[in-house]
Design brief:
Blueprint: H1 16-24, H2 30-48, E1 51-54, H3 56-71, E2 83-87, H4 114-121, E3 125-130, H5 164-171, E4 177-182, H6 188-194, E5 197-200, E6 220-225, H7 228-239, E7 263-267, H8 277-287, E8 293-297, H9 302-328, H10 334-342, H11 348-370, E9 374-378, E10 391-394, E11 397-400, H12 401-406, H13 410-415, E12 419-427, E13 430-437, H14 443-459
Parallel strand pairs: 2-3, 2-4, 7-8, 7-9
Antiparallel strand pairs: 1-3, 4-6, 5-6, 5-12, 9-13, 10-11, 12-13
Helix pairs in contact: 2-3, 4-7, 7-14, 9-10, 9-11
């Protein structure tokens, strides 16, 4: 873990596993944990803008239920009684869900999204909904009807997006866990820029029912936490379709041990997009903490993959929004509206060509991972820019911020493979991330290796 940012709340100093032990020992109650989350959310709201909606009454009721269950011997697993935040793209029954857009300012879903149902079945307590880039269509996190989410390490700078508030809420210690969505990097980018752990799972690993779509063939739901162990606990809850009435254990979908000395392929980031050399050095130094055999590797045709991503996402996003653009275009943020309208020029044959590139990229990445246990590269090639910035220097090149933020994450969205961002250190006082990529279904492999390294560093 990185040093906590200034002004951080209670959960910056406590892991989920330590809180779970304290709950079962009677040293703290679910209600007290909820109070810590609500107090920090209110205190830090003007500074970071992590939340759109706080559900104090619902959280306190859920805390009372969790306390009663634990007292009676019902134990739903490590998340039982733990506060969690949910991105405001994800439906929550009876709780406003805005998609960061004026179109849905008063929308209250009747049912939970499936991922939220699984959280509640695990005993987690939803305390509120977090700021998202409007309709999740942006990597900066500073275009939302409720304003920009801000970086806890330097509030004048971006959080990254689109799961902006979820990353901020965890990094600032408001909650220990949060749920985000990731289409091209929307969990990993803010995780890297805010100094936490964020997982984009294999495409389809967590149901997206009840999550407002951006590009359905790329959309995923992913966990965010301060440590790899806590991220793994949340991942197990999201990926396990247990019934609401079933107590949940801590065993995950895959308890096979990770290799003692994994073979990791290092992807030079400059071959994929311009990158700040200091960020590359920090990410590679973090990789050197691993007991691993690291060798150089390369993903074929990164430019083709980047173009295919833009086509796939753009074509599908326009399809989602075409009818709304026709009747309520004025309610969109100017930047988001402009991008959506530009997508109307993408033809069906161009989309099909991009799907063909996607299939080739999946084969190439699978072949590469047949030779390595994991791949590694920085998560984002720059540190968090100031809020509102739209071009930056990456090394000796001037690039668009969106391209710089997405340049190292989008390939794994196209291939559908799981990718994990873990903190790699600070550059100029701002966090940077190391990204690890595994074969499809390798989420536990990613998290176990990262968890083992965390443990070794803490022991030292």
């Amino acid at each position: 873990m990185l040093p906590s940012p200034p002004e951080a709340g209670y959960f910056a100093e406590h892991t989920v596993h330590s809180l779970a032990a304290a709950l079962r020992a009677g040293q703290v109650s679910p209600g007290e944990l909820v109070d810590h989350a609500l107090y920090a959310a209110g205190r830090l709201a003007p500074m970071f803008n992590a939340f759109v909606t706080i559900d104090a009454c619902g959280a306190r009721e859920a805390a009372e239920c969790a306390a009663a269950e634990l007292a009676s011997g019902i134990d739903r697993g490590p998340l039982h009684g733990i506060p969690v935040a949910v991105k405001d793209m994800v439906a929550t029954a009876g709780l406003r869900t805005t998609m960061g857009a004026r179109h849905f300012a008063g929308y209250v879903p009747a049912r939970d999204a499936e991922c939220v149902r699984r959280l509640r079945a695990a005993g987690a307590i939803v305390v509120g909904k977090t700021t998202t880039h409007e309709f999740a269509y942006g990597a900066t996190g500073d275009r939302s009807a409720n304003g920009a989410a801000r970086n806890p390490y330097r509030p004048g700078h971006m959080s990254g997006g689109s799961s902006a508030g979820s990353a901020v809420a965890v990094a600032a210690g408001i909650v220990p866990l949060a749920v985000g969505t990731d289409t091209g990097g929307s969990v990993r980018i803010p995780a890297a820029l805010c100094g936490i752990v964020g997982l984009r799972p294999s495409h389809g690993a967590v149901p997206t029912g009840g999550v407002f779509p951006l590009a359905p063939s790329l959309d995923t739901v992913g966990p965010m936490a301060r440590t790899a162990a806590d991220c793994r606990a949340l991942w197990h809850a999201l990926s396990s379709p247990a019934l609401d009435t079933e107590p949940r254990g801590s065993a995950g979908p895959d308890d096979r041990p990770a290799p003692e000395r994994p073979r990791i392929g290092w992807l030079a980031p400059d071959r994929m997009c311009p990158t700040d050399p200091e960020v590359t050095r920090a990410a590679r130094a973090r990789l050197d903490d691993f007991a691993a055999d690291v060798v150089d590797a390369a993903l074929p045709d990164p430019d083709d993959i980047r173009r295919a991503y833009s086509t796939l996402q753009g074509f599908e996003a326009h399809a989602v929004h075409a009818a709304r653009l026709a009747v309520a275009a004025d309610q969109y943020d100017d930047e988001v509206r402009g991008r959506l309208r530009a997508n109307a020029r993408i033809s069906a044959p161009e989309y099909q060509d991009a799907r063909a590139v996607q299939r080739r990229a999946r084969r190439a990445a699978s072949e590469l991972l047949a030779e390595h246990d994991l791949l590694a590269l920085p998560t984002v090639g720059i540190v968090a820019p100031p809020v509102g910035t739209r071009s930056v220097w990456a090394g000796d090149q001037r690039v668009e911020v969106r391209d710089a933020l997405l340049g190292l994450t989008l390939a794994w969205s196209v291939t559908g493979m799981p990718a994990l961002s873990i903190p790699a250190g600070l550059v100029d006082g701002l966090p940077v991330g190391l990204q690890l990529v595994a074969p499809a279904g390798g989420e536990d492999l990613l998290l176990r290796i990262a968890e083992r390294v965390d443990a070794e560093l803490i022991d030292v």
